From TrEMBL:
<feature type="transmembrane region" description="Helical">
    <location>
        <begin position="273"/>
        <end position="291"/>
    </location>
</feature>
<comment type="pathway">
    <text>Terpene metabolism; lanosterol biosynthesis; lanosterol from farnesyl diphosphate: step 1/3.</text>
</comment>
<dbReference type="InterPro" id="IPR006449">
    <property type="entry name" value="Squal_synth-like"/>
</dbReference>
<dbReference type="GO" id="GO:0055056">
    <property type="term" value="F:D-glucose transmembrane transporter activity"/>
</dbReference>
<dbReference type="InterPro" id="IPR002060">
    <property type="entry name" value="Squ/phyt_synthse"/>
</dbReference>
<keyword id="KW-0472">Membrane</keyword>
<protein>
    <recommendedName>
        <fullName>Squalene synthase</fullName>
        <ecNumber>2.5.1.21</ecNumber>
    </recommendedName>
</protein>
<dbReference type="InterPro" id="IPR044844">
    <property type="entry name" value="Trans_IPPS_euk-type"/>
</dbReference>
<dbReference type="GO" id="GO:0008610">
    <property type="term" value="P:lipid biosynthetic process"/>
</dbReference>
<dbReference type="GO" id="GO:0051996">
    <property type="term" value="F:squalene synthase [NAD(P)H] activity"/>
</dbReference>
<dbReference type="InterPro" id="IPR019845">
    <property type="entry name" value="Squalene/phytoene_synthase_CS"/>
</dbReference>
<dbReference type="InterPro" id="IPR033904">
    <property type="entry name" value="Trans_IPPS_HH"/>
</dbReference>
<dbReference type="Pfam" id="PF00494">
    <property type="entry name" value="SQS_PSY"/>
</dbReference>
<keyword id="KW-0812">Transmembrane</keyword>
<keyword id="KW-0808">Transferase</keyword>
<dbReference type="InterPro" id="IPR008949">
    <property type="entry name" value="Isoprenoid_synthase_dom_sf"/>
</dbReference>
<comment type="function">
    <text>Catalyzes the condensation of 2 farnesyl pyrophosphate (FPP) moieties to form squalene.</text>
</comment>
């Protein structure tokens, strides 16, 4: 709070249209979040309402700012799909951050709705114990399935954006979200530690996300990855598979999938890297042979093999 004057100064420098949008959304967020100080997330409707206050309203506020800037034109259903953009991101964070939130001191933060977790445990914190792993993963999968319901709205919102910088600002977090859900699904590690996208994959997303075709390609890849992890014996398997198939069909109908590089199985680039590294290693061996003779080379094979192991470990990391 001791830095609030900086925020106030920046706010007062904004044009009136921006100020009005920020003021309205901030008031609504504050009132909504205050409601959940003493009100637990019991039902799925409560869950959606909480996510609306903390993230959906951010989506609405950003849409109003885009409109005020003159860079975008809002669609008739802009409020609904803007809200879905926020809910998709927030639900992904709530799923991924289960362990951090449940271990919060002095009091756990509990955002998973009782209507879902109550099917699998007596208390939400019970899901983190190894003896409850099977039920925990089933609960996790139902949470992911719930989050997937917002994807169609998110794709519709992004497809309507016109400004390239606004598009990338909105699209990159959404791709990170579907990628994170693909990692979390059926993954007990969510209850043991941190699950997140590798830095290299994150860099790919940032570098490659330039058009809506890139977004369709990314959502298609990650939905395929998630689909391979669905166990048909899961209680919600049919619902999960139906949602993923709908997403894949939407991406096929609107994207240019055959022309893009895969985010999940980008084997061509990896194979090229292996070839380059192999040539370099062979050159090193040849140089040793010429400089030191075969006998000395074999005497040093211990150290050379160590180098090779480190190089291969680097390639696979």
């Amino acid at each position: 709070m001791d830095q609030l004057h900086h925020v106030s100064a920046a706010f007062l420098e904004l044009e009136k249209g921006y100020q009005e949008a920020i003021e309205e959304i901030t008031k609504r967020m504050g009132a909504g979040m205050a409601k959940f100080i003493c009100h637990e997330v019991e039902t799925v409707d409560d869950y959606d309402e909480y996510c609306h206050y903390v993230a959906g309203l951010v989506g609405l506020g950003l849409s109003k700012l885009f409109l005020a800037s003159g860079s975008e034109v809002l669609t008739p259903d802009w409020e609904h799909i803007s809200n879905s953009m926020g809910l998709f991101l927030q639900k992904t964070n709530i799923i991924r951050d289960y362990l951090e939130d449940i271990n919060e001191i002095p009091k756990s933060r509990m955002f998973w709705p009782r209507k879902i977790w109550g099917k699998y445990a007596g208390k939400l914190e019970d899901l983190k114990y190894e003896k409850n792993s099977s039920n925990a993963v089933q609960c996790l999968n139902e949470m992911v399935t719930n989050a997937l319901t917002h994807i169609e709205d998110c794709l519709k919102y992004m497809a309507a954006l016109r400004d390239p910088s606004i598009f990338r600002f909105c699209a990159i977090p959404q791709i990170m979200a579907i990628g994170t859900l693909a990692l979390c699904y059926n993954n007990v590690q969510v209850f043991r530690g941190v699950v997140k996208l590798r830095r290299g994959l994150t860099a790919k997303v940032i570098d490659r996300t330039k058009t809506m075709a890139d977004v369709y390609g990314a959502f298609y890849d990650f939905s395929c990855m998630l689909k391979t992890k669905v166990d048909k014996n899961e209680p919600n398997a049919s619902k999960t598979l139906k949602q993923l198939e709908d997403v894949q069909q939407l991406c096929r109908d609107n994207g240019v999938l055959h022309k893009r590089k895969s985010y999940v199985n980008d084997k061509g680039q990896s194979n090229n890297l292996y070839i380059v590294m192999l040539v370099i290693l062979l050159a090193i061996v040849f140089a040793y042979l010429r400089a030191n003779g075969v006998k000395k080379v074999f005497e040093k094979m211990g150290s050379l093999s160590t180098i090779l192991r480190h190089q291969m470990k680097y390639i696979h990391s």
